[in-house]
Design brief:
single chain; alpha/beta; TIM Barrel; seven-stranded parallel β-sheet; two-stranded antiparallel ribbon; 15 helices; globular
Length: 357
């Protein structure tokens, strides 16, 4: 495989010395870029874009052409697994993702297949292979999946939700049915991520978008337990290199100590906890990724620079920090503000690292 020209992202995940703090953004390939909107229009629909390896590669690399980012992330969606399970996924403007056939019973769960990465999900593997080839060692490629709890939430609710009535109703009234669903999803995610690693992903992230809506007890039983199952089953080395795992629970700052014991290499942190506190909770077990509020990017370059400085100071000196937003970039952000953000991270972070790195 081609030697990496910029490996500071992977080095930071393994808490090794770097020259400056690496930075990438969740949803960095997306609607805030006019070139992305043009490519999506050419594709016809969001899922058509995901299923076209060449176009998925094009939008994955678009932000790298604008900004000196330290990693690329596969352009795809967290709902590819439930879509491949035959639930009838559609994306409706103004309503987000919807499933024609939500999962509401033990019989529904029993009938769900575990998708084959090189079968129903081969289009994702083809995208990984195409992107990795096109990157040609420029920066590492991140693969990803939704967490079992997050996927189950969409599948049981039938789409997005603000009340979590169906999924929490199942959790409290039919816990065994939910456990069966989560176990099947954990198996599916493990197979899916291992497929991405075999296809060329050099790090993987598990997005636990809805874990933060649970109580501490229920988080451990219905979310963390199944992410642990995935981590235990993942391929940890490919092409002679370690494949780091990033675990991100939005709203999960108070459980970082528990998350740090899973065997993940890095924990994503949102903006609801200071990195200094997160670092104390996680101890020296893992790297941390985050955690600037995406809404800062609505301000101006000077204010963005101040916030970058604040986040860097909160983490402090030492290795093991990957700079990121606390969640995905919003679609109405000005790309010029993103440029100011990336530049500020690289410029202001140098004093926090050993210049010999």
């Amino acid at each position: 495989m081609t030697k990496l020209q910029n490996d500071r992202f992977l080095r930071a995940l393994m808490r090794q010395p770097v020259d400056v703090t690496p930075v990438w953004m969740m949803r960095q390939a997306g609607r805030y870029l006019p070139e992305y909107r043009a490519t999506r229009a050419k594709a016809g629909s969001f899922m058509d874009l995901c299923r076209n390896a060449e176009l998925a590669c094009e939008v994955t690399i678009q932000p790298l052409e604008r900004f000196p980012l330290d990693a690329a992330i596969l352009f795809s969606d967290i709902l590819t697994i439930p879509d491949a399970m035959g639930l009838g996924l559609t994306f409706n403007t103004g309503h987000g993702p919807q499933f024609e056939r939500p999962v509401r019973s033990a019989a529904d769960v029993k009938n769900l297949p575990i998708p084959d990465p090189e079968g129903e999900l081969q289009y994702v593997m083809n995208a990984v292979r195409t992107i990795r080839k096109e990157l040609d060692g420029r920066v590492p490629l991140i693969g990803f999946s939704g967490s079992p709890w997050t996927l189950a939430t969409y599948m049981v609710e039938g789409g997005g939700t603000k009340e979590y009535g169906h999924i929490k109703g199942m959790m409290f009234d039919q816990p065994e049915t939910l456990h069966q669903l989560l176990d099947k999803l954990a198996q599916s995610v493990t197979t899916y991520l291992n497929g991405q690693i075999a296809a060329g992903a050099q790090a993987v992230q598990i997005f636990d978008t809805w874990g933060g809506v649970l109580t501490p007890r229920d988080y451990q039983e219905f979310s963390l337990r199944y992410m642990q199952q995935i981590i235990d089953g993942l391929t940890r080395e490919a092409d002679g290199h370690t494949v780091p795992i990033i675990l991100f629970t939005k709203g999960g700052g108070r459980w970082l100590d528990k998350m740090a014991s899973t065997g993940a290499d890095c924990l994503g942190v949102d903006w609801t906890i200071d990195l200094s506190d997160a670092r104390k909770l996680a101890g020296d077990k893992v790297a941390l990724q985050g955690n600037m509020d995406p809404c800062i990017l609505y301000s101006n370059p000077e204010r963005i620079r101040e916030e970058v400085a604040s986040v860097l100071a909160s983490y402090g000196k030492g290795e093991g920090h990957v700079f990121n937003l606390g969640h995905g970039i919003h679609p109405t952000i000005d790309p010029e503000n993103v440029a100011a953000f990336i530049e500020a991270v690289h410029e202001l972070s140098a004093p926090y690292h050993n210049s010999q790195a």
